[in-house]
């Protein structure tokens, strides 16, 4: 199982969803047309024969189609703000970036580590503070627009590993393209359900008035009742569609979480606690059914027909084949003992202890391959902890985050730095210049591999800047990196990522969709991207040529080709090539990433330059970093 295969499945789910929704709409239109024909189409006019039904049925069809379409469009447009709009619609509140609450701080740390490991910007973080059940969801149109929302139950009941497993599950939805499908599904459900609401209004306002005026209230009442009945029947089938689309994706997201974390006990432990707690994963929010298909667990206790997730025990067994149900009874007893009043006063727990940290370890059945793997989170966590506190604190507020990013672009050469300082003062004024100057020393001391993770941490704050302020930032950053007449690799990677991600965050609904292009049609772009990676990852031409050939043979087996060295001014052609390659289909992107990995591993050494380029390429192609 891999992310690219899952992206392809999501595309298939999208097509099935469109077909099923179209069939449901056709059935609704036919049913309402039939009722209107019976109720009003046979009435004579002034004692003469009944008029033709064709115009009446045509009008009814157009009105119903427009009603469903416009209602769905209205609901989708109301979520134009992306992930944060979905979270706020459920009453969730944003988790402050500078929170000092140790539990919320742990949540932020886990999400930041997952984002760094996956090579995506840190999402907005939300908390459903009034929800005691264990649940979470990811929402948005793209990784640049994503929001991760968890319930209070996640923070109170889960250990750090379990919370990490839940967050990794949600990140798989971010990376696999599930979020855009989820928002569309919310709109389609609303469009069908609105018919029942219209029917209620027709009966309430139309039936009585028509009855008083011309005695036609029975017909109007019949149409209103039909709208209610058909609307709820349509909603019934829409719920079935919602459940069918969601179930297959949730099992794949569980597997993706294991692929992320390289262990099963975290996410399996979270599922076991859902199974034994009385609250389970239930939400109290009135509109919970609207988002049921995007949650970590079931929104409530419903008939299996409408279940949006596979049965809990099946999910646990898929993760731990040796699981037995009697383990749940032992876990429930252990949790009761942990919450029971103590007979004697125990020693005080450390203030920073994570919720659930005192729980006994859960039984784990893990394959040798997983047990031997090193989680990417360990490396991401090490990078996160290595960042200077002054830079991390500054990255948490919009204006100081702007200063952090600009400090990353400051030159070590005095003459160039003075020119950059004048550019800064002209664009932002002396106050920002002073802040950037104060942060420059810490930024200059950063290891190369820490620069882009720091920018990822600053991203949520940068998104809060006005669109004009963001444009000024990007323009000034571009001018600063060109101040010495050239753009080096570090400068290119920083500016490329920020420009792409901020522009996507400004217009979430315009984020690119999965393409359908083939590698053979983009051979020149593939050759250039592989050549740039090979050149920056190898010290001499011979080694670069060998790495390039390995990548190209992986992408285009058994096809003759000659080494094509990248131009000296490679940045603009590289930009253009990445934009073209983002139009590839998921399987084609997978082949390309595999080829790049072959090039990077050609000399058995992964350099910082190769790692940074791969991070930028994967972000540009909207796919995760290879683990």
UniProtKB/TrEMBL annotation:
CDD domains, sorted: M48B_Htpx_like (cd07340)
Domain Peptidase M48: 105-320
Cofactor: Zn(2+)
One example GO MF annotation: metal ion binding
Transmembrane stretches, start-end: 17-40, 52-74, 185-207, 219-238
Recorded superkingdom: Bacteria
GO BP terms, alphabetized: proteolysis
Key words, A-Z: Cell membrane, Hydrolase, Membrane, Metal-binding, Metalloprotease, Protease, Transmembrane, Transmembrane helix, Zinc
InterPro entries: HtpX_protease, Peptidase_M48, TerB-like
Protein name: Peptidase M48 Ste24p
């Amino acid at each position: 199982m891999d992310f690219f295969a899952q992206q392809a499945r999501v595309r298939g789910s999208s097509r099935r969803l469109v077909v099923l929704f179209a069939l449901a709409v056709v059935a609704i239109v036919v049913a309402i047309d039939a009722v209107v024909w019976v109720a009003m189409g046979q009435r004579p006019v002034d004692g003469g024969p009944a008029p033709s039904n064709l115009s009446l049925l045509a009008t009814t069809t157009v009105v119903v189609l427009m009603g469903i379409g416009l209602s769905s469009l209205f609901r989708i447009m109301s979520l134009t703000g992306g992930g944060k709009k979905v979270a706020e619609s459920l009453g969730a509140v944003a988790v402050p970036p500078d929170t000092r609450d140790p539990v919320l701080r742990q949540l932020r740390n886990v999400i930041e580590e997952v984002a760094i490991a996956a090579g995506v910007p840190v999402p907005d973080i939300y908390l459903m503070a009034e929800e005691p059940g264990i649940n979470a969801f990811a929402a948005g149109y793209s990784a640049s627009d994503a929001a991760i929302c968890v319930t209070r139950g996640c923070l109170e009941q889960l250990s750090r590993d379990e919370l990490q497993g839940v967050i990794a599950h949600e990140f798989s939805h971010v990376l696999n393209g599930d979020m855009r499908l989820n928002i569309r599904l919310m709109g389609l459900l609303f469009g069908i359900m609105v018919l029942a609401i219209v029917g209620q209004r027709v009966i309430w306002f139309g039936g009585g008035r028509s009855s008083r005026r011309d005695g036609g209230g029975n017909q109007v009442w019949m149409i209103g009742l039909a709208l209610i009945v058909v609307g709820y029947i349509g909603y019934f089938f829409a719920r079935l569609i919602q459940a069918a689309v969601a179930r297959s994706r949730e099992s794949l997201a569980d597997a993706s979480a294991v692929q992320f974390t390289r262990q099963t006990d975290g996410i399996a432990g979270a599922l076991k606690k859902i199974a034994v707690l009385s609250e389970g994963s239930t939400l109290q929010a009135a509109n919970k059914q609207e988002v049921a298909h995007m949650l970590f667990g079931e929104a409530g206790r419903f008939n299996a027909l409408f279940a949006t997730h596979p049965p809990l025990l099946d999910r646990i067994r898929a993760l731990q084949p040796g699981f037995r149900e009697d383990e749940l009874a032992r876990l429930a007893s252990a949790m009761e003992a942990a919450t029971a009043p103590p007979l004697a006063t125990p020693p005080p727990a450390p203030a920073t202890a994570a919720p659930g940290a005192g729980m006994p370890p859960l039984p784990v059945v893990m394959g040798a391959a997983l047990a031997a793997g090193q989680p990417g989170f360990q490396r991401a966590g090490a990078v996160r902890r290595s960042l200077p506190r002054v830079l991390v604190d500054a990255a948490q507020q919009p204006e100081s985050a702007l200063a952090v990013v600009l400090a990353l672009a400051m030159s070590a050469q005095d003459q160039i730095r003075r020119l950059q300082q004048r550019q800064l003062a002209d664009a932002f004024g002396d106050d920002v210049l002073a802040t950037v100057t104060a942060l420059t020393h810490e930024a200059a001391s950063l290891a190369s591999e820490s620069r882009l993770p720091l920018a990822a941490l600053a991203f949520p704050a940068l998104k809060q800047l006005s669109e004009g302020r963001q444009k000024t930032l990007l323009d000034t950053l571009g001018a600063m990196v060109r101040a010495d007449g050239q753009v080096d690799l570090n400068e290119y990677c920083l500016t490329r990522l920020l420009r792409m991600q901020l522009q996507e965050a400004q217009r979430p609904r315009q984020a690119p969709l999965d393409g359908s292009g083939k590698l053979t049609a983009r051979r020149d772009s593939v050759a250039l991207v592989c050549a740039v990676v090979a050149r920056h990852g190898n010290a001499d031409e011979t080694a670069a040529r060998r790495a390039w050939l390995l990548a190209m043979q992986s992408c285009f087996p058994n096809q003759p080709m000659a080494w094509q060295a990248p131009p000296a001014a490679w940045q603009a052609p590289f930009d253009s090539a990445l934009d073209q390659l983002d139009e590839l289909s998921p399987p084609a992107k997978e082949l390309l990433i595999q080829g790049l990995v072959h090039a990077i591993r050609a000399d058995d050494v992964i350099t910082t330059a190769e790692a940074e380029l791969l991070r930028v390429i994967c972000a540009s192609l909207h796919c995760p970093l290879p683990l």
